[in-house]
């Protein structure tokens, strides 16, 4: 859903960290997260499943991965069951 975003905090060595964000920038797009073979992949995906942009991180370097869903117009969470 447009406005959904994922924040990724990565250890870049020593005491340094770097924060990255992947956002669903247009209507109908969503952000998907996958963990494959030691690599965490965060992608902005269209309705048809085509990846528009993808960020890849070594899983042993990721300190935090936080999903931030956008709330709907009623003020509730998108998946709260209100129809």
Share in β-strands: over 45%
Shape: globular
The number of helical elements comes to: 0
The secondary-structure class comes to mainly beta
The main β sheet shows up as:
3 strands, antiparallel
Radius of gyration: 14 Å
Report the strand count: 6
Q: Give the terminus-to-terminus CA distance.
A: 16 Å
Mean pLDDT across the residues is: 85
Oligomer: single chain
The secondary-structure element order is: EEEEEE
Low-pLDDT segments: 74-78
Work out the helicity level. under 10%
Lateral arrangement of strands in the main beta sheet: 2-1-6
Kindly list the characteristics that best describe this protein.
0% helix, 83 residues, 3-stranded antiparallel beta sheet, mainly beta
